[in-house]
Amino acid sequence: MGTFLGFIGFLILIICPIYCAMYMEATEKNEDQKKMTFFLAFIPGILVLILAVYLKADQPIETLLFD
Fold first, then answer.
1. pLDDT greater than 70 at residue 62
2. How deeply is 41 buried, as exposed, middle or buried, from its count of CB atoms within 10 A (0-12, 13-18, 19+)?
3. Of 3, 16, 55, 65, which one has the fewest beta carbons inside 10 Å?
4. Residue 37 in contact with residue 20, Cβ under 8 Å?
5. Could you give the CA distance from residue 48 to residue 64 in angstroms, rounded to a whole number?
6. CA 34 to CA 20: how far, in whole Å?
């Protein structure tokens, strides 16, 4: 589950700001709104990545070394 959420988080981190920038350019908002929307678009991706790290199962070092 953690790996899947990590993958989805990276996709959201890349795609969401691009789509927000394209939307703000199409609606012809002022520069301050464009910049703020672009930076706020990173929040969902970062939250999903944090959730992925939190849900990632911890493995002891011994199981990682001797697999």
1. no
2. buried
3. 65
4. yes
5. 25
6. 8
